[in-house]
TrEMBL record:
Keyword Flavoprotein attached: no
Lineage, uppermost ranks: Bacteria, Bacillati, Actinomycetota, Actinomycetes, Kitasatosporales
Gene Ontology molecular function: dipeptidyl-peptidase activity
Domain of life: Bacteria
Xref: InterPro entries: AB_hydrolase_fold (IPR029058), CocE/Ser_esterase (IPR005674), Galactose-bd-like_sf (IPR008979), Xaa-Pro-like_dom (IPR000383), Xaa-Pro_dipept_C (IPR013736), Xaa-Pro_dipeptidyl-ppase/CocE (IPR050585)
Annotated organism of origin: Streptomyces brasiliensis
Pfam families: Peptidase_S15 (PF02129), PepX_C (PF08530)
Chain ranges of the Xaa-Pro dipeptidyl-peptidase C-terminal domain: 329-564
Keywords: Hydrolase
Protein name per the record: Xaa-Pro dipeptidyl-peptidase C-terminal domain-containing protein
SUPFAM superfamilies the record matches: alpha/beta-Hydrolases, Galactose-binding domain-like
Length: 576
């Protein structure tokens, strides 16, 4: 039974319609709460839907926003600032997806891709909300991350009353969300299990899709095969998940599907985005490379009115999420309230440039013309615009031996540095790292991180690149400075053979000031703590290599290991 009450948030009075039951077309009911001003009148509605639990989202009314590294930061409080939404005279509708929280039904697999399409449920929620007497029929959506992905799935179904969406930090290609360059990332584990600063999914009735599709005998064989990967077999949590799959159903599905293909493509929101024709605002901050990549890819697919806003570092917003609300309300003021505030007169793409702290705008990404130039790895750990002249017999390779983290706490890192820049140097776009390497095992990780290092030694991460060596194959989407790996098969490395590994450097925008240097760091595991990692939740790291590996990095006249970077060639377009 729905409950109607009023509450106080500071000096603000908020009416709450608690535990409304929304009927789906198959008879299942989803649970939502609606928050609005005390006056009895219809308003535009902003809908936030996830599997993280609407009760958790209600903490936005009582908990001041937390930033990392606060231990109170909870990555799942992502539905937005309830009091601010109500103050701006919208109805804030926050609900639980099927199989989670207080909703009925079953969720099978991540984003319920083994069951009823979530876009279908979202369509039904949107149309139900639009028909309520407290809604004026104009509906948008709100929320970051999981909530952002739900917006794209909803818009692809074209519900008639969904007039626009504002997506911040969504996840799209679910393979790239979890396997960066083929290397497993643990952040999705945290969001599903509830570890390391995340409450996780509010499980009500969830099931592993793998367990629904395969028989117990077939699944045991697949699990045994997965445990042959020494990286997986060396990590206690993964062994536990694979041996006891009913404990962590969704994470089990992710771990078991370590190659890209149909399993991920059928659930990729970008695949569905060609159906979207309503206005879409995409916002993402730098420092989370794979999601910047996804937002750009989605922007390029969309055919209707659209904006792309790439914000400043650092990578993790507050929880409860409150950032970007000013931009969001301008967007919805125009599209839901019909107020011409000039937002559509502004250029479509806005990019914050680290270093100069300027904002550049254009109609496309990248917002400036660029020219790819190479910085070559040289002897004596130098990065230079000139390639190494000496042959391999004189320019002996750099090298490092990395023991598994089961027996050491030390992550070995090789680094190369440019000379200090003499003038401001701006780069905007994607990049590539071409690494010629020889290893003594059949696989390893390559993790490259590029830093802007100031004269006083302080530094900021600019971009990263990841590649599991066995995933080194490239496909026909690859262009200069923008490599693509299909990740549809793993090809073991021949020990002792020099191979070229091409890492995709995620999109970035940075100006290197005079006196600053680029420092490129290469390792096969991530440092346990540094200036960047301290800004992330504890589980935001990648699966370490589970075997000892010796790496030799060649950078001579024949093996031209290098960074290929996007140098801008024209001035910024002034923002209106």
């Amino acid at each position: 039974m729905a409950d109607f009450r009023t509450i106080q948030a500071g000096e603000q009075t908020i009416a709450v319609r608690k535990d409304l039951r929304v009927p789906m077309r198959d008879g299942v009911e989803l649970a939502v709460d609606a928050y609005h001003g005390p006056e009895d009148k219809p308003r535009p509605a902003l809908i936030a839907m996830s599997a993280y639990g609407k009760e958790l989202q209600a903490l936005a009314l009582t908990m001041p926003p937390q930033r990392r590294p606060s231990p109170m930061w909870d990555g799942c409080i992502e539905a937005g600032d309830i009091a601010r939404v109500v103050k701006e005279d919208y109805v804030h509708v926050i609900g639980d997806m099927r199989g989670s929280g207080d909703s009925g039904g079953v969720m099978i697999g991540n984003y319920n891709f083994g069951g009823v399409p979530q876009g279908q449920d979202l369509y039904d929620v949107i149309e139900w909300v639009a028909a309520q007497p407290w809604c004026d029929g104009n509906v948008g959506m709100i929320g970051i991350s999981y909530f952002g992905s739900m917006q794209v799935l909803a818009a692809a179904e074209r519900p008639p009353h969904l007039k626009a969406i504002f997506v911040s930090g969504g996840h799209y290609d679910f393979y790239e969300t979890t396997y960066h360059g083929g290397i497993m990332w643990f952040m999705p584990r945290a969001a599903r299990e509830g570890r390391g600063g995340d409450s996780g999914i509010a499980h009500a009735d969830v099931k592993s899709r793998m367990q629904e599709v395969y028989s117990a005998e077939e699944l045991k064989k697949l699990v045994d095969e997965r445990l042959l990967d020494p990286d997986v077999a060396a990590w206690p949590n993964l062994v536990h998940v694979l041996k006891y799959p009913k404990n962590r159903e969704f994470w089990f599905d992710i771990v078991m599907n370590h190659l890209d293909g149909e399993w991920y493509e059928e659930r990729n929101p970008i695949t569905l985005a060609k159906n979207i024709d309503i206005p879409v605002y995409l916002q993402i901050d730098q420092g989370r490379g794979w999601t910047v990549d996804g937002h750009i890819e989605l922007f390029d697919v969309l055919k209707g009115p659209k904006k792309l806003d790439i914000g400043s570092y650092p990578p993790m917003q507050s929880r409860p999420w409150i950032e970007e609300h000013d931009k969001m309300f301008r967007w919805y003021e125009y599209w839901l309230k019909g107020i011409d505030n000039g937002i559509m007169d502004e250029l479509a793409v806005s990019v914050f440039v680290e270093g100069s702290r300027e904002v550049v705008t254009a109609e496309q990404w990248p917002p400036k013309d660029i020219e790819y130039k190479s910085l070559y790895l040289r002897t004596r750990r130098k990065l230079s615009f000139e390639p190494e002249a000496m042959g391999v017999e004189h320019a002996a390779p750099d090298g490092f031996y990395q023991a598994p983290l089961t027996v050491t706490d030390k992550v070995e890192i090789l680094s190369w540095s440019t000379a200090p820049f003499e003038q401001r140097t701006e780069m905007i776009g994607t990049g590539a790292a071409h690494i010629f390497a020889e290893i003594d095992q059949d696989d390893t990780n390559f993790i490259l991180r590029m830093w802007d290092t100031a004269p006083d030694g302080s530094r900021q991460l600019i971009t990263t690149g990841y590649l599991k060596a066995s995933h080194r194959e490239l496909d026909d989407r690859t262009t200069e400075g923008s490599p693509y790996h299909p990740h549809t098969r793993a090809v073991p490395v021949e020990p002792g053979k020099i191979e070229e590994y091409v890492l995709r450097l995620y999109p970035f925008a940075a100006t290197f000031q005079p006196g600053h240097r680029i420092v490129a760091e290469l390792s096969n595991d991530e440092p346990l703590a540094d200036e960047h990692n301290s800004l992330l939740p504890p589980d935001a790291f990648h699966l370490p290599v589970g075997r000892p590996v010796t790496h030799k990095i060649y950078r001579d006249a024949v093996h031209r290991s290098r960074l290929v970077l996007p140098f801008t060639t024209r001035k910024a377009v002034e923002k209106h």
